Amino acid sequence: MFDRYEAGEQAILVHINFTQEGEWEDLSEFEMLVSSAGVNQLRVITGSRQSPHPKYYVGEGKAQEIADAVRAENAEIVIFNHSLSPAQERNLERLCKCRVLDRTGLILDIFAQRARTHEGKLQVELAQLRHISTRLIRGWTHLERQKGGIGLRGPGETQLETDRRLLRERIKAILRRLDKVSKQRDQGRRARSRADIPTISLVGYTNAGKSTLFNRVTDAGVYAADQLFATLDPTLRKIDVEDVGTSILADTVGFIRHLPHDLVAAFKATLKETQEAALLLHVVDASDERYRENIDAVNTVLEEIDASDVPVLVVMNKIDNLEEAEPRIERDEDGIPRCVWVSAREGTGIDLLFTALTERLSGTMVTHTLRLPPAVIGRFRSKFYQLGAIVREEYEENGNLILDVRLPIAEWARLQKREHQGLDDFILA
């Protein structure tokens, strides 16, 4: 039913430079997207305009140049590095006599190829259906024909109206199933919240090295490759952070400039891991010349998903591609780590990353001196030893044990909850 192209098709690429900043796209990134989709690039047609043309997006002369290139190269598809309106797509297809795909459609197709889990496939299908619903008319030759003939007379519904109704019903069905998945995720998050287990969410521009870093820290073995959108399905793993204890690290989908809104909406359930995280690890490809623009693009998406208020630790990755970069921690004026320079591929600087995580997540460490009577020494002393919280211990003549303990405030609160006899009763003033 839907217009999707197969990997290996022959394509003409179109990239236009605009003087308006909001329309700016990057050609090298576009070529990486096309390569990630498995398309064979025949020719790149470039041009400059002040603003998009309402009929063809490009000017009429440039549109004719594209059509001539399609015929000369026997191309099967034209891919634009820009978002086209449904009318512009139809006009270009009539002129070029082949299919035309815009940047949004290309990204959706890559997502469709990469989705592995049931949830991921549902999310991509939802985004595709929402995108295709505005372009439905172009896929059929009979859409305006009314039902007629013996046994077919009825409501007078056109084929186009029937297809739109079926689309709406399918979208509703997917939303219901995604709502169930969302509730399951919410249950998991509530359970972690009750156990005071913090979640650390990896975010960053696509191909910044998030999955490589995830594998380095967790030994998870998730798919990592030097291509755009290698990771689509979220993965959660436990890690141990000193002075914090067990934490959950979440690997998420990479962001990109002008990420389609349909995708952001479809991936809301997945991106909740980012919204409700205790800390975001913003992974940046330090070897990319445009890393500052990539940081801005990620921050824009974080605002869209209401995650801009979550604390952030920047991880400058791929320092092995830089000549004089050394692993290090950069701190703000208060001495709090704000940036760590590492190489996930080589494993350099990972110890510094854990140091920064400890400082950012431990929050306020609590220090107490406890006097434990003999009846409770065995129970409490073993718990503090398991947590590595004992600083000093000393027995009094009457058999009481004096303990100096230092541990994260979350661990102290957890112990308080579990014990019927409150620990506050044993604190020395």
Q: Brief overview, please?
A:
By secondary structure, this protein is of the alpha/beta class. 40% of the residues lie in helices and 21% in strands.
- Assign the CATH class of the largest domain: Alpha Beta
Biggest sheet, strands in spatial order?
6-7-5-8-9-11-10
User: What composes the largest sheet?
Assistant: 7 strands, mixed
Mean pLDDT: 79
Annotated CATH topology of the largest domain: Rossmann fold
Q: Which residues form runs of ≥5 with pLDDT under 50?
A: 1-7, 138-149
Number of strands: 14
Number of domains: 4
Please estimate the helix content.
25-40%
Supply the helix-strand structural class.
Answer: alpha/beta
CA gyration radius, whole angstroms: 28 Å
The CATH architecture classification of the largest domain is 3-Layer(aba) Sandwich
SSE pattern: EHEHEHEHHHEHEEHHEHEEEHEHEEH
Instruction: Characterize the overall form.
Output: elongated
At the fourth level of CATH, the homologous superfamily of the largest domain is P-loop containing nucleotide triphosphate hydrolases
Strand content: 15-25%
- Total helices: the number is 13
InterPro entries: EFG_III/V (IPR035647), G_HFLX_dom (IPR030394), GTP-bd (IPR006073), GTP-bd_M (IPR032305), GTPase_HflX (IPR016496), GTPase_HflX_N (IPR025121), GTPase_HflX_N_sf (IPR042108), HflX_C (IPR045498)
Function: GTPase that associates with the 50S ribosomal subunit and may have a role during protein synthesis or ribosome biogenesis.
Domain Hflx-type G: 198-365
Protein name: GTPase HflX
